[in-house]
Amino acid sequence: MIKIAEKTFLVTGAGTGIGYSIAQCLIASEARVVLHCNSHVEPAQKLASEAKTDCVVIQKDLSQPQAGQELVEEILNLGYSLDGVVNNAAIM
């Protein structure tokens, strides 16, 4: 099995549903998690505040063309390098 403790993951759409559950599992496995959400920010913030690992919430509307680049720049500005991405956001 792959060790994910201390690895850094981005989970898009982490405010509810599958993304939220995946983020919970990563946090429980001691991963560092960047929780992306556009709406449903409060559940993601609560999850991050209760985590025993390093977690951050970034709110972006990924339906906007520049938002993906901005998200990556924010992550890099935090000093993180990503080990994995869970692309779960629903884009309409």
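(ticket continues) Second input and output from the same batch:
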Amino acid sequence: MTTAIARSGAGAPDSAARGVEPSPGRPRKRVIFGPGMIWILPAIILVLGMIYFAIGYTGYVSTLDWNGFILSPSESVGAANFVQMFQDDVFWRAIWHTAIFFVVTFAVQTAIGFTFAAIMHSRIRLAPLYKVLIFVPTVLAPASMAPVFRAIFDVEGQFNSILRTVGLGDLAHPWLADPATAMPVVMAITVWQWTGLTFILFYAAMAQIEPEVLEAARIDGASNFRSLVSIVWPMCKGTTIALATLGIIGALKTFDVPYLVTKGGPNHATEFLGTYIYQTMVAEKHFGYAAAISIALLVLAVGGGVLMNLRRRADES
């Protein structure tokens, strides 16, 4: 038997053979540069090189007065593009639109997604079907849905037809051509598209809550709504912060829906940084100014992500 034990432990670490177990409080060393690193190093260099080269080149172009053509002359203007950017009313309107867009869409998506997740956890009939229906808009390409929404909110579209049918014809008007209603329409489309992702993340977070915790709350006399507000919602705080971080970054780089539905109009009513960069670079051929706005967009995105990460760490500590 001793021989068998010795043979079975022949390949074990020396500490185990001597009966000495590793200290549970001693951190294990993480091997970062192992033998396999040489195989993924070319990919790392390529990816990081492309990313940082693009950022550096964009920063260089932001100091030029250039129309984007390789053979055309370019003139160094220093920080003139950034000075123009800070004096540009459209740029500040795009920043304001981004802030309002984030606040509204994040609040609505969080409320709807959290509510749907709580309902799906209440063991209703046909829950799998409802989950699919809620998540389907998230996987649809905006390019395929933009013509549909343009037709729905057209003057003679289905939305105005419904209003006339129910006796609210006085409210019918060109929703996408009115600066007062174009942005709410873009927000509604975004909420429709991304609420499914919010729902999935909240649903997964709720699945991690121990049933004993909710059962103890019921025994103490807490109602379902009270348990939802006092127990479930606080325990989903990490998911909410993650969604807020994604929402900030997503709002800053919003492009597809406003461009495909309204093209940033009417009269810049739905202009975002992404659509303004595209308009400045492609339509106006002002590559230097577009690069300056891109640098501002990068700074805002990184700054927003860092602030949310610091907020999360502060809450955890």
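Agent notes: The first helix runs from residue 2 to 8. DSSP finds 15 helices and two strands in the chain. Closing as not reproducible unless the customer responds.
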